[in-house]
Structures are given as structure tokens and as C-alpha cells.
Amino acid sequence: MASIFSKIVTGDIPSYKIAEDENYYAFLDINPLAKGHTLVIPKMETDYIFDIEDEQLGGLLVFAKKVGKAIESVISCKRIGVTVIGLEVPHAHIHLIPLNTLYDMDFKQPKLSFTNDELAQTAEKIREAFDTIIL
Ligand code: 5GP
Fold first, then answer.
1. Per-residue model confidence as pLDDT tens digits over 22-43
2. pTM value surpassing 0.85
3. What would the pLDDT profile of 76-125 be if each residue is shown by its tens digit?
């Protein structure tokens, strides 16, 4: 059965899309730890990130780098935290989280909630920035 994230890629489940290419997809986390908290996934479904073949894995990180640069150009933060957990959704994904303190990466913290308009605006700004980033 397709994962939730595969259904997001196909559009069967809606998402606030940030960026997409042939192999990768980035979208806002539905339960963010920070404004701009984004997930980056390979379109090819693999549960555990370290089971991804080397070239795909390298490409995922480079794609995440471009997304991270776009986020940090839009969201005020010291840097973008990068983490992989994967205990909830069995489709490999990288969390990109705007950080000002160590606690911003604490997944035990209450998640933030934004209106649909706020999420749409945030996604649009990051999406526009992504198109201007040259690595
Ligand atoms: P993890 O698997 O890394 O432990 O956590 C999965 C992450 O995916 C969580 O941060 C959760 O909020 C996010 N997530 C789970 N389901 C959805 C969904 O349907 N849409 C979006 N945008 N994010 C989701």
C-alpha cells in the first residue's frame, strides 16, 4: 500500500508543496515545530533512509540543501536544523527546521498551529525563494 507521503506526491492527499523535481518532493510538515518546518522525501518509497541507494541518497541531500537555503532566506533563524527520525511515517524523509535554539529541534515540544492561509503564504514564499536558489 502506498505511504501517506506517496499519496502526497500523487496529490491524493493535499500538501503545502515547497518544491519538486523528477526524484524528490518537499512540503510543509502538518505538525510543525517551527514556521517553515519542511519535509523532504524521495518520490521512490523506501522506509529507512539508509536503505536508499547511494546516488539517490546523495541527490536527496542536495535537494534538501536547496530547500534549506530557500527556507533560511524567508524565515528568520540562525540556521536550518536537519534531522531524520522516521518512527511515524515509513517513507524516508528529512526534517528541515528553522532554528534559533537547541530546543527548536525538540520533538517533545508542543507542535505549532497555523491557519491554512498562513501555511499557504509560508509555502508560497519558500517556493518562490527556491526558484531563485543556485547551488
Ligand atoms: P517521523 O516519521 O519523522 O517520526 O515523523 C513524521 C512527520 O511527518 C511528523 O513531523 C508529522 O507531523 C508529519 N506528517 C505526518 N503525516 C503527515 C501528513 O499527512 N502531511 C504532512 N504534511 N505531514 C505529515
1. 999 999 999 999 999 999 999 9
2. yes
3. 999 999 999 999 999 999 999 999 999 999 999 999 999 999 999 999 99
Domain count, the chain: 1
Ligand 1 closest atom vs CA 111? 12
In a domain, 135, yes or no: no
Which among 89, 104, 109, 119 is the best mutation to test ligand 1's pocket, defined by most ligand atoms within 8 Å of the CB? 89
Yes or no: say if 9 and 25 are a contact pair by the CB < 8 Å rule: yes
Among 14, 108, 19, 33, which Cα is nearest to 75's? Answer: 33
Edge-to-edge strands, sheet with 17-20: 17-20, 24-28, 38-42, 94-99, 79-83
Assign residue 110 the CATH number of its domain.
3.30.428.10
Ligand 1 atom, smallest distance to 85 CA: 3
Q: Which residues constitute the domain of residue 46?
A: 4-130
Residue nearest to atom 17 of ligand 1 (CA): 30
